[in-house]
Amino acid sequence: xxxxxxSEPASEPFEDxxxxxxxxxxxxxxxxxxxxxxRVLRRQESRLARYRFYIAMLVLLAIAVAFVIGAWxxxxxxxxx
Length: 81
Fold this sequence. Notes:
Elements: H1 22-79
């Protein structure tokens, strides 16, 4: 029975293969920070928009109730109910 041949050790990448640009690293950090900040702002704006929607709906509902009550009183006064 033949012995399996050990695989060659993984060659480590040479440092000369890809020169690292320090400004590129900083730019990527800034890019990802900006993305995270934009995501947080979108979440906050969405939450605030939801609150504005419910407040507007409550105001419209209060106005509608006021009109219904006012109309009911006018109907009672006109027809003597």
